Amino acid sequence: MNLKPLKFGTVTIDFPVVLAPMAGYTDAAFRSICKENGAGACYTEVTSAEGIRRDSLKTFQLLKVSELDHPIAGHIFGKSVEAMVEASQYIEQLGCFDWIDLNCGCPVKKVVRRGAGAALMKEPEEIGEIVRAVKKAVSLPVSVKTRIGFSPSFPDHLTIAKIVEDAGADMIAVHGRYACNFHGGPADWEKLGEIKRALKIPVIGNGGVVTPEEAVEMVRVSGVDGVMIGRGAVGNPWLFDQIKNPSLPAPSLGKRRETIETHLLRLVELTTATAAGRSRKVGFEPEPAACLHFRPHLAQYIKGLRGRRDLLQQLNAMRDVKTVMNAVDKVMEQNQ
Ligand SMILES: Cc1cc2nc3c(=O)[nH]c(=O)nc-3n(C[C@H](O)[C@H](O)[C@H](O)COP(=O)(O)O)c2cc1C
After folding, report:
1. Could you list the active site residues?
2. Residues 136 and 213 in one domain
3. What pLDDT does residue 274 have?
4. pTM of the model
């Protein structure tokens, strides 16, 4: 697909088709798999600015990055300007992030109740205040991930986007759905186009891309500078390379198996490192925990294959890599 490298501040994304932040999914293990398969950049899972302030161990684990991740954004949410500034300074000090991304679109109740995430879109001036303060406090580039609005009756997409730009953000990624619709229904790529035409900073479009054709269509309709992919990459990390090179064949069963195993082994490694940092180790075994965490990924990796239903029925009882991979092999054999 014809997309130019996307530049903002000190960041260059050579191939601007990027992995969306997804809590519970886009840990370092999955990010590395997507990066190896062509994703141009990625974000951490959403991390609480207040958590960083409180010294929460869980929060710091969300900020673990690997060499494969770059360029990568530290993606944070919060309501107070002070917490967002402190968290951004902390992320900058870590020295392993390429930019800072501010979440202004998460519709999850516990986030919105605190006035953070998507709730900020109801008072877009607050987004402006946060962006201005964070920009002043750090030297890393700063972006915002937002939506086309909280609901159709709240300040419109152009108002929010202009506030973000005027406050000094270096880039904006917009999910083309209202927060009140969570992740359902079609994304509005026309509105992404209106935002693109109204702003000078780069705009990444997000929402509803699960095939290479849809990535091309989003860019055609909206003219955005980059495409962000969330659920379409789960179980299909090859999508990035397929967008880059549409003549690539679908991955073979052997390739799928290899990716599943690599992903699961990296998750075990990550979970083991996480466990090593815990003060309370009672009842926490890394390999079973990684196998449980891997379930939604595996369900997507084997989508459309014969034998999937049987595997999914036994999945909850599978607590080690060998058992999971034996079950995967059985599925692959049925589809030779
Ligand atoms: C399970 C899940 C977790 C998500 N977590 C985050 C998050 O932490 N931060 C964020 O900005 N968006 C989050 N999102 C939204 C995605 O980044 C993306 O905007 C949304 O899925 C739409 O893109 P898609 O249609 O390509 O999936 C999440 C979405 C899902 C499905």
Report:
1. 106
2. yes
3. 81
4. 0.97
Q: Residues with Cβ within 6 A of ligand 1?
A: 20-25, 45-46, 103, 105-106, 145, 175, 183, 206-209, 229-232
The residue type at 275: A
Q: What are phi and psi of 22, to 5 degrees?
A: -140, 110
Last residue in a domain, options 202, 223, 244? 244
Report how far ligand 1's centroid is from the alpha carbon of 326 (Å). Answer: 31
Phi first, then psi: give them for residue 140, nearest 5 degrees: -70, 150
Mutate to test the pocket of ligand 1, among 108, 183, 295 (most ligand atoms within 8 A of CB): 183
Which residues are within 8 A (CB) of 316 and not within 5 positions of it... i.e. 6 or more apart?
292, 295
pLDDT tier at 282, thresholds 50, 70, 90 = low
Spatial contact of 316 and 295, defined as CB atoms under 8 Å apart:
yes
Token code pair at residue 120: 């900020």
102 has which bridge partners?
A: 76, 144
Nearest CA to ligand 1 atom 30: 22
CATH number of the domain where residue 292 is located:
1.10.1200
According to DSSP, residue 248 is labeled: P
| Cα(26)–Cα(44) distance, integer angstroms | 7
Q: In the numeric block, which tokens belong to residue 105?
A: 């679109």
Does pLDDT of 154 surpass 80? no
